[in-house]
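Lab channel / #folding
Pinned by the channel admin:
"Please post every new chain as: sequence first, then the structure tokens as a reply. Keep commentary short and put observations after the output so the thread stays searchable."

First post following the new format, from NK:
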Amino acid sequence: MLEGRNQRTSDSNDGLGTGEHDGLKMIPVWSIVLAVLVFAGWLYISYYAQPHHHGPQPMRLLMDYLTGTVLASYVLLVGYVSRDVKRRHMPALLWILIVLVMPGGIGAVVYFLLRQPVLIRCPNCKTELTAGVHFCPQCQFQVAPVCGQCFRGVQTTDVYCTQCGHNVSEDGGPARLRAYSDS
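Reply from TO:
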């Protein structure tokens, strides 16, 4: 009964749980462009808008580049948070304001401490699941590979279970979960 359900696959791909949360892919283009503009703007202000009486000093150059890098990094962080809150179904405007308004990056620290877990959708019944589950609690659809002996999670590329040593390639799990192990 469970095997029959697991053979069904969904043609719809809503983008959740498909690796879209890879680090640099989470930073929107507008944030990257704005970060470059902030960095360049800071360097312009520090070099050309303020008169240098004795020419550029090495320590001043270092501090100007460091300050520009910190400001640009903060803009990238705001861009990351703006995309990450949507993925975690949290109020976007509230968290962006918290990150922007709280001084010294404290808002970003609070966000990373309090953010909700990433939710994925069951391909069979579309129930929202936390990322660590192996079976859907509504329809028993297997969303991640498990060992056939101890029923703990394994990677799709594992040949043996890391917990009990069972040969997981003999378990006969759904073909969609064995795609990497067939060589």
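NK: The first helix runs from residue 2 to 7.
TO: also worth noting, The CA atoms of residues 78 and 96 lie 7 Å apart.
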